[in-house]
Amino acid sequence: MTRIPNVHDAEPIPPAAREAIDALLQSGDLFRYTAPQDAPVALLEREFADMIGSKYALAVSSCSAALFLSLKALDLPRDARVLIPGFTFAAVPSSVVHADCQPVLCEVGENYRVNLADFEAKLDQDIAAVIISHMRGHTSDMDAIMALCDARGIPVIEDAAHSLGTVWDGKNIGTIGKIGCFSFQSYKMINAGEGGILITDDADLVARAVIMSGAYEHNWKKHKGPHGDNTGALEAAFARWQNQLPLYNLRMSNLSAAVIRPQLPELLRRVRDGRTNHDYVAAKLNTSPFLSVPDPLGPEVRAPDSIQFNLVGMDEAQTRAFAEAAGANGVKVQIFGLSTDNARAFWNWQFIQDLPELPQTRAMLMHACDVRLPVYLKPDQLDAIADVLTSAAAAAAGPLRAYGT
Questions:
Q1: Can you give the residue ranges of every domain in the chain?
Q2: Pick the catalytic residue: 72, 122, 188, 284?
Q3: How many CB atoms lie within 10 A of CB 90?
Q4: DSSP assignment string, 146-172
Q5: With 80 as the cut, is the pLDDT of residue 399 above it?
Q6: Angle at CA 202, nearest 5°, toward 30 and 80?
Q7: For all residues of the chain together, what is the average pLDDT?
Q8: Are 184 and 196 in contact (CB under 8 A)?
Q9: pTM value?
Q10: Of the CATH numbers 1.10.468.10, 3.90.1300.10, 1.20.120.80, 3.90.1150.10, which one belongs to the domain with range 266-403?
Q11: Separation between Cα atoms, residue 141 and residue 177, nearest integer Å
Q12: Name one Pfam family in it (predicted).
């Protein structure tokens, strides 16, 4: 019998990172602004922007920091209302609160994507900005969302923490809205333990974000635009905002950049393997009458390193029995709604004043399951995971359902 792997393990960091870290340790040059040019963080920003197809990138301490700086860079007034999905990680509404704004939650459907009818209805409730979380890499209908927001002049920030490598209608996720934010936390496609990066094509926005991230005095001069860009737009924006903005000191260190940069060439391979693994397991889970993996939307080509699925026809007792059975056989299943402290269940965001009820989102979260599928898993390991899940579903649903008849 194939041993169930520890799905919380990540791929090894490429050897090139060790060489870069050793050089940094020898030099002691860990601060991004010490070097006059070509510090590892600065090189990462240029390489990431080129890879994703954006003019500018700013590497920071986390994706949460990137979201916060994005809101501050938009220069929203205090108490501005920011529309977010009801299914996201608590860091998203936290970043809104931290930016002195008010989170407004919209419903999310059975397929983990924004309910467009509720989104549109709330968009006209004095919304100043939108954050779209591609939660667990599931892309909402970005064509419809951008059309609705563009018609109203409302800027869109993409929370692409889980979506590095995902493509929507030929465009990299993160490049569709005004600003895109990505994560380098350990459970993401590129792993630095912690870290984040924001991208944009707007010189004024990135200049504001750079200064507020902690580019004091003239350190902003070490941030560059695209190669061959001689418009002077970035330099003019920096000059306009120098000394005008508070510093939040959310910088990335050279050590983190040294860990990240050698992983960028691995991204396409990881995306390919992650999609193959996900689709393989999804096909197996969908053979069960008790499990359902939602289909992707037509324009979406995902880059998953986990799988989400819904339990079909199970009550709460059966749902808990399923999770217990799977866990007892080596596969930890997170059911988003069955926890008193799950940071992805909106009712646990008690820091939001007048927290609304979202019945559709709540119903989804009560039977939506999450299992990590690291990209390095082999077919026999995937088979073992799928077999545990389908067997646990049959055991939980079958006998309990028969008992209740």
A1: 15-265, 266-403
A2: 188
A3: 18
A4: HHHHHHHT--EEEE-TT-TT-EETTEE
A5: no
A6: 95
A7: 95
A8: yes
A9: 0.95
A10: 3.90.1150.10
A11: 12
A12: DegT_DnrJ_EryC1
pLDDT at 403 over 50: no
Q: How many CB atoms lie within 10 A of CB 98?
A: 16
For residue 232 the two structure tokens come to 């002077």
Which amino acid is present at 27? Answer: S
Query: 15 versus 403: which is more confidently predicted?
Result: 15
Q: 3-class SS at 369?
A: strand
Q: Which residues of 251-288 are buried (b: 16+ CB within 10 A; e: fewer)?
A: bbbbbbbbbbbbbeeebeebbebbbebbebbbebbeeb
pLDDT tens profile 17-44:
999 999 999 999 999 999 888 999 999 9
284 is catalytic: no
Cα separation, 204 vs 156, in Å, equals: 16
d(CA 369, CA 387): 16
Give pLDDT, residue 405: 43
The H or E element spanning position 15 is helix 15-27
Give tens-digit pLDDT for 144-180: 999 999 999 999 999 999 999 999 999 999 999 999 9
Contact 59, 195 (CB under 8 A): yes
> What is the CATH class of 15-265?
alpha beta
CA angle 318, 385, 173 (to 5 degrees): 95
* Complete DSSP assignment for 321-339: HHHHHHHHTT---EETTS-
